User: Fold this.
Amino acid sequence: MEFEDMKKIWDAQTSQPLYVIDEQALHNRILSKKRKGAHITNISELLGIIAYGVMGCFLLGVTLYKQNGSPFMYVLAVWVLTSALYILKIRILRIRGNDHFDRSMQGDLDHAISVAKYQVHLSLVMRWNMLPIALLTVLGVSGAGKSVWFSIAILIFFALAAYASGWEHGIYKKRRMELEMLQKNLANG
Amino acid sequence: MTEHQQQHIFESWLHQHQALLFKVIRAYAFTDMDRDDLFQEITVQVWNSIPAFRQEAAVTTWMYRIALNTAIKWVKKEQKHSQAETLDAVHHVLKENAAVVDERLAWLYEEIHKMDKIDRSITLLLLDDFSYKEMAGILGISESNVGVKINRIKKQLISKSTKLNHHGI
Assistant:
């Protein structure tokens, strides 16, 4: 076969694309991504509510028990409890919003994107929330007469946590992007 | 550029040049799961590239550049993290178009698969009539290098096709 013959065979696929998009498979993929996203979001919310709730109650209890605790520790306890309540509130709103999506492929995809956007927002809020918590913790332990090294160790701990949280946030953003791309491909198909 | 404009361009590019993307996907991804994965990866990169497109190059050249670079990077990444296909991925988004089943085309892709990454890209571009200069621009190699590689690739393909003819395809 001459090269020109190969070219003719090759050119035939330009008018007839090699692949077609299997809509059922696409729908299954969207459903799988939606379930996975919803599961991860659910776990993140519950962990956030429990962790902040337990930590807030513990801090409040210990500070009240000591009676001479730093005022920053009271603020910290209230801040942490408010964070738990905030996650609870947005979780309730998210669950209420689930009914707004129909069960079509487009509806499922919109729902998956909505959950992915919510997860991105949640992880971003939680990341920034470390800043006031770190600040109040340092002020609180400094007021309680702990050494500077202890405060530095706390700051390093929060810096590492913020770094890990940024990495996690990147994963959620990538997941959201993938879903938005599916939506764009779907609009095109 | 607004997102609406970007979306409009993306849809029109994908509609007009879908075949081009599928050629690159078939040349670089061997399993159905990989094809789905690479398709998604390339479309993400095409979407991201739209604001940077300056009309200095033809859209086909631009898309080939994006698709080939993405495919080459994807192959490197996949070699590091090669995984077995999982059961939940049995149904694939990209299905072979039954109307394009041609044994000679399948043979041609098989030969392209056997090539290294750069030769694969050159062969795709050559078969799609790109000039030496365009190929050199897309792949970041010199025109003379492109010429040498093309001569070798053509000779190899013609020689292999002769053997194939002897086997009756």
Observations:
- DSSP finds seven helices and one strand in chain B.
